[in-house]
Design brief:
Elements (H helix, E strand, L loop, with lengths): L10 H21 L4 H20 L3 H21 L1 H12 L3 H10 L13 H13 L4 E5 L6 H4 L3 E6 L2 H8 L9 E5 L2 E7 L15 H12 L3 E5 L6 E5 L2 E3 L4 H12 L2
This protein binds adenosine-5'-triphosphate.
Adenosine-5'-triphosphate binds next to helix 9.
């Protein structure tokens, strides 16, 4: 067994360790709150056990785990496809401002945060829908991809504006059922079915629409606005929780802050 020789520890080794720690940290931040986190943790655990079996010279088990990890790498590429694409896009991009934008997505570059969503149009639409007791469920994507839920609805690409949001949720509209997904300043899907949260702490007065908003904000870093059909109440959800606000003006300020990147 090869013994660790700390006298041969070079500066470059320290840099190597710090870089791997950074990589793991940013990978963790990227997948935190999504379903991919369980796979990420699973692979880290298997890798830890594999190294241990190697150290203890348990040949059979270490061979099996080593083989499994080889396949695990492919699973990793499939699961993190979106993130890998963004990362490669950044590396290959010759346009510096695009690179800066993607770097900001990874939170490695702290520039002045930019807001690309027309929050004012969303809030105005919510105010109108609240006044007419029109039910609405709006999910706004942040860093985590929402592609896994988008496929359940109708994909589209329409610029965010107040009348369009209102007409989607208008009671007789064929699109009013389910959730609307907003990415940057575009409505990218309607009639989306979201995963419903099983959290028993959600008050019983909230039905499926609110549970679906809790569900998607638990699993991803998206934020959600719900307008109740029952009483017109507007709710804001983030990280699987209801966020309290005084009035829609305060909600607008909160949204603007949360959507800056
Ligand atoms: N999983 C889901 N994903 C997306 N939309 C959903 C989901 N479940 C329910 N909805 C939407 O919510 C609508 C109303 O559901 P429900 O009455 O149970 O919600 P609620 O939370 O009580 O809201 P409200 O206060 O508006 O009645 C449904 O007609 C549907 O459009």
């Amino acid at each position: 067994m090869e013994l660790l020789d700390f006298t041969k520890f070079r500066i470059i080794d320290a840099i190597d360790i710090v870089l791997v720690a950074f990589l793991l940290y940013y990978l963790y931040r990227l997948v935190k709150g999504t379903v991919a986190i369980n796979i990420f943790i699973g692979i880290v655990i298997i890798y830890g056990i594999w190294r241990l079996t190697e150290l203890l010279q348990m040949e059979l088990l270490s061979k099996i785990l080593g083989g499994f990890l080889g396949v695990g790498m492919f699973a990793l590429i499939v699961v993190f496809q979106q993130e890998i694409r963004k990362f490669l896009l950044m590396l290959g991009s010759t346009n510096f401002s695009a690179r800066k934008r993607i770097l900001k997505k990874f939170n490695l570059f702290k520039g002045e945060a930019q807001l690309s969503t027309d929050v004012s149009a969303i809030i105005k639409a919510c105010k109108k829908m609240s006044g007419s007791n029109t039910g609405a469920l709006i999910v706004i994507q942040r860093n985590n991809s929402l592609d896994f839920v988008k496929q359940s609805g109708d994909e589209m690409k329409m610029e965010v504006n107040q009348p369009i949001i209102e007409s989607v949720f208008y009671k007789n509209s064929p699109l009013h059922d389910g959730a609307m997904i907003i990415e940057e300043n575009h409505i990218t899907a309607t009639r989306v079915i979201l995963p419903v949260s099983n959290d028993r702490n959600i008050p019983l007065r909230f039905g499926l629409r609110h549970r679906a908003a809790v569900g998607i904000t638990e699993k991803t870093d998206a934020v959600c606005i719900v307008v109740s059909e029952e009483n017109g109440q507007v709710s804001y959800l983030k990280e699987g929780d209801f966020v309290l606000f005084e009035d829609l003006e305060e909600l607008k300020t909160m949204l603007e802050k949360d959507l800056r990147k």
